[in-house]
Amino acid sequence: MRTAMLNTVINAQESIPDDRPADWFSANAATVALGLSWISARLALADDAEEIRKAYDSARTRQLNANDPASIDRLGDLFSLAPFDLDVLLLGCAAHLVHGIGSADLEMAFTVCDAIEPPEARFLALGRFSPDAPLRRFRLIEMSDSAVQLQSRFTIDERIMRLLLGDDQRVAAIDQALEAEDCGPLPEHNLDIVDRLCASMDMERPAAALVGAARSGRRATGSALARRFGLGIRTLLLRFLPSDPGERRDFFALVEREAAIGRFAVLVDIDEADGRLAGEDLLRGFSGFTIVVGKCPLETARHVPTGHCRPLATADRLAIWRAVLGERSTALKGDLLEIAEHFALGPREIARIARDLLDEETLWDACRSVASRDLLGLSERIVPRFGLEDIVLPPKVLALLHAIEAQVRFKSRVLGPGGFAEQLVRGRGTTALFAGPSGVGKTMAAEVLAHSLKLDLFRIDLSSVVSKYIGETERNLRQLFDAAEAGGCVLFFDEADALFGKRTEVKDSHDRYANLEISYLLQRMEAFSGLAILATNLKNNLDPAFLRRLRYVVDIPFPDAAERETLWRRAFPAGTLTDDLDYPKLSRLDFSGGNISVVAINAAYLSAAENCAVGMRHIERAARAEFHKLDRDFGGWA
Fold first, then answer.
1. Which superkingdom heads the taxonomic lineage of this protein's source (predicted)?
2. pTM of structure
């Protein structure tokens, strides 16, 4: 019988990938075959049932003594199963693999197990089939009836049966919801947090909360905490959570089962949609190791040991970069400090960039892409095309732009260790106001700075951010700055007149809240680690008290005749044919740089319609149309 049973088990194992040592695989197959033989003999009331049981127990003992236990004992250890529970699992497996047994029910289970022959023991054994007992809590078996009775049938879960046979094939629906990722190195100052949490952990229901800003190393700290207990860590992806309450309970039970099998802690980000509810559900009903991370703690989790992660400083990020890059970091030298200063990335992002990095030359672009991705849906991304050499401005204005560029570029040198960082009252960012009439180049000035600094430029129309509803403007601004907190970009707030005005004299509640909105914007600009620029056409409408909080105020004037001539000479691309243009004469047209660009392209279309080069007549026609659009008189230009 045993030989036939062994063949049955081996046949059942043919589809199992051989990812375990051959000796364990063979020993486990023999042990399972003995167990199934005992089930068959016990149900048949065979005389040799006791002998087979002794052989089965001896096989398990040999594997235990070799520190390589059989799969049945691994399951028993993982889920704290009683000997009766293990026999129930074996019976469920036999119902699938052994011919003639058919479906398994409780009467069979009681027949199989010697330990429950007395009636009172049988009554107690019924409790092993209750919903809260391990067999059903962890979905190891499934009952046919909600009420437990002798005729109730049960089936072993396929995942558990395959584990008994030595196969660790995970459930796809659960596996896709549990992301295994490199959380990055532990920030050195968070080591104390791990020590404190370990000391205060309740190992009956191990759980911890890590509170702090995004990118402060919360996940890396959670991963280090799990490693202290010999566990990995996987993040629960909340988009896979079922919405139905019953399905949700089953889902969490399967997650708990997988966490026990895979020996990992489950991490939940409570800042995500449905995250707080998922965190509460896990902390309330999850017996495995749970780690919740978020900006604010859960009110219902005050009993959970909590660690507070402070934002990473430049020195912290520099140490993480060096750790993940290893020997490659020596080639970067000063560039690595600049990257750590410009891009406020977290350990997980740094580790991911370092893992996928092809060469050091692409490191800056990779950081820029990761740092700015959250802004894409909240603002307009402008790809910088022009450098400082392309913009036409008076020397004094150009000098200010160069000063702003230098302040951003050399921030790590000035604010680094032993520098000015500790003396700054309002933050490490650079703030500026670009003021001037429409079309003089405020947006282009922001673009050339972003281009020179190799940073992304994001344009935010403040008129679309400002709301008439009290508190809504701050909420919109908070969402925007939170998305930009990784830095590595230039924020350009256009149409600042929608928010700024002379609000010193508070006449009603709307003025008071307008002042609060402005103060909040300036506060977030000052705290922003990158370059934040406001643009306005009406500088005189801005309260001087607010202007004083900006580090730079750049007045961009209407171009004079010499500047307009330069703008005209640059207006037509090299591939556009022109015919004897009189640039000094064109400079007499009272246009801004933006108007000149519009007139030039409209003139090009007019010449294309005539299949000829752009001439003065085309420019004159386009200029007249532009003056008409501006509701201005063309004047005596001729």
1. Bacteria
2. 0.80
